[in-house]
Design brief:
The chain is α+β, with helices and mostly antiparallel strands. A hairpin with a 5-residue loop joins strand 7 and strand 8. It is elongated. The strands form three sheets. Strands 2-1-3 form a three-stranded antiparallel β-sheet, with helices on one face. It has a three-stranded mixed β-sheet with strand order 4-8-7.
């Protein structure tokens, strides 16, 4: 069955593409979840209009993310935690801790946008990437100090 994708579908194709998929996959997954529509002339026109609107929205979001990245380039966050032997923290600094510290500085960033591979467990200065958009990312400085 030929369908036109309304959203990006992983391992199939990108939004707006005309693809041939198994009938069952289209009937049971793509069509009920509104990820695709049958490939007709009328649907092609509708999907093209949706694609153009999506591109305009995406461009605006990207511009907003780039301006936020300019503001966040020199952001430094200082966090204080209890420290044990060898400057290892009791507990760790997580993405939620960093998001809360950014919130205190009036930057509203969701914690899942903070790209920590693993929680910070040592004292010192760390560069933490924050992904503001698919194409826009900025590194912020996180300084972890021992609690007095």
């Amino acid at each position: 069955m030929e369908v036109i994708l309304r959203e990006d579908v992983e391992k199939v194709c990108a939004r707006g593409s005309l693809v041939k998929v198994a009938d069952g996959y289209a009937r049971n997954y793509l069509l009920p979840n509104r990820l695709a529509v049958p490939a007709t002339d009328a649907n092609r026109k509708i999907v093209e209009q949706e694609r153009e609107a999506h591109l305009r929205r995406e461009a605006k979001v990207k511009v907003d993310a780039e301006s936020l990245a300019q503001l966040m380039q020199n952001v430094t966050i200082t966090l204080r935690h209890r420290v044990g032997e060898n400057n290892h923290l009791f507990g760790s600094v997580t993405a939620k801790d960093i998001a809360d510290a950014l919130e205190a500085q009036k930057f509203h960033i969701e914690r899942r946008r903070i790209q920590l591979d693993e929680p910070i467990r040592t004292v010192g200065e760390h560069k933490v990437p924050v992904r503001l958009h698919r194409d826009v990312s900025v590194d912020i400085n996180v300084i972890v100090e021992p609690e007095q």
